Amino acid sequence: MPFLSLTDPADLARAYAALEAVWDEVKRSIPEPEHERERTRIACLVAGFAPLALDEEDLKQNVLLHYNHSVLS
Predict the structure, then answer these.
(1) Most C-beta atoms within 10 A of its C-beta, which of 5, 32, 53, 66?
(2) What residue ranges do the domains of the chain occupy?
(3) What's the pLDDT at 8?
(4) Rg, C-alpha atoms of the chain
């Protein structure tokens, strides 16, 4: 799981909450057979941004920005 690198309980809680929030926003636009792969991709983005985030909303917005940019590229 991508969150193994997070040791701070606050970072871990923020990461799980942000993962669910981002996933709720994008899952309807992703074909069902790609759900697992894309959710894992989002989790990796969350793990990378979590230590730098100011709060859960900041984390969510950064992940959405980078995820949407990568999908459109």
Answers:
(1) 53
(2) 8-72
(3) 85
(4) 12
Q: Choose between 60 and 8: higher pLDDT.
A: 60
Query: CA separation (Å) from 12 to 29, 43, 61, 70?
Result: 26, 11, 17, 24
| pLDDT value for 36 | 97
Alpha helices in 1-73 (DSSP H): 9-26, 35-49, 56-72
Single out the residue of 71, 55, 70, 60 nearest to residue 24, CA to CA: 60
Give burial (CB, 10 Å; 0-12/13-18/19+) of 46: buried
Residues 32-43 as b/e (b if ≥16 CB within 10 A, e otherwise) read eeeeeebbeebb
55: helix, strand or coil: coil
